Amino acid sequence: MSTFYAIGLMSGTSLDGLDICYSRFTRDNSNWTFEILKCETIAYSTNWEDDLKNAIHFSSERLLQLNSDYGFYLGEKTQEFIIKNSISNLDLISSHGHTVFHQPKNKFTLQIGDGRAIRIKTNKTVVYDFRSQDVLLGGNGAPLVPIGDELLFNEFDACLNLGGFSNISLKRDGKRIAFDICPVNIILNDLALKLGKKYDENGDLARSGIIDYELLNELNQLNFYQEKAPKSLGIEWINSQVLPLMKNQKSENLLATFTEHSAVQIAKILEEFEIKNVLITGGGAYNSYLIEKIKAKTKTEIQIPAREIIEYKEALIFAFMGVLRLQNLNNVLSSATGSLTDHSSGLIC
């Protein structure tokens, strides 16, 4: 039996903040178990939120500066977390970084936050840049969490994450497949912001709006939804395909329409793959209106876990991916990303 202690760092496209998750992983033969020991979300300052949101428009020089600055920021916050929680057992820090560009068809993806800067601030082994190798191998570079679903959460038929984008992983013909379904919080949070809210709490704003069925139909007809998995989404797709459809009308109505759209697309996948039970995590699990909408459209049993799993499952799994990387074990599944082969991904510093 082997035991590993790791910290996972995750920053999602919805810009909720930096998730830090300290966990213990135990391996007994081929069986893995985990325990979340400490976790915290650090909200971004207005400046950091603006920089991360607008980084896609930065010049090369400014983006390189941000990559370095954000790496030191991650290192500082991780070191503060280590001291605050008196963490002495720590084998590694595993950082997802923050996605700026994601264009797998063009063979590149970029998650900023230089792991070497994290190493300098913490003096710990750091694993980072998990997606680039998969993209170079012909994969989508996403989703990556299915390795954790396969080894840590395999009691569920499927695992569904409702973050900036919704993505799902499930078993088919003995293989774990996974793909992005549709945007969720990356749109909903932006619309809520226009109403002076950070997010649509419980979906109450959407509940007060009126669905625009013409817009709903246009959204549901987008080409991405006709493509076969594996497939993934990025901010570029939002900017080119979704935002031009979002006409000038009340934000409440747009929230109602997009919440319905997300529920339609998610329920369609649950029904298509005849999922018996699904574990739902990510910030969208708290959106009771969205969950109600999904439940109304599918026979699948919806499982909402404890808060630590809802909020920190992705950070937990990136910590786990770092553990696998240090053991030189495969941590990316080609059946999920579409790459040439399963592989052990991540730069070690």
Automatic annotation (TrEMBL):
Gene Ontology terms, MF aspect: ATP binding; kinase activity; phosphotransferase activity, alcohol group as acceptor
UniProt record, GO biological process: amino sugar metabolic process; peptidoglycan turnover
Keywords (A to Z) from UniProt: Kinase, Transferase
Phylogenetic classification of the source organism: Bacteria, Pseudomonadati, Bacteroidota, Flavobacteriia, Flavobacteriales
The UniProt record lists the keyword Chaperone: no
Protein name stated in the entry: Anhydro-N-acetylmuramic acid kinase
Keyword Coiled coil carried by entry: no
Organism expressing this protein natively: Epilithonimonas xixisoli
Pfam families according to UniProt: AnmK
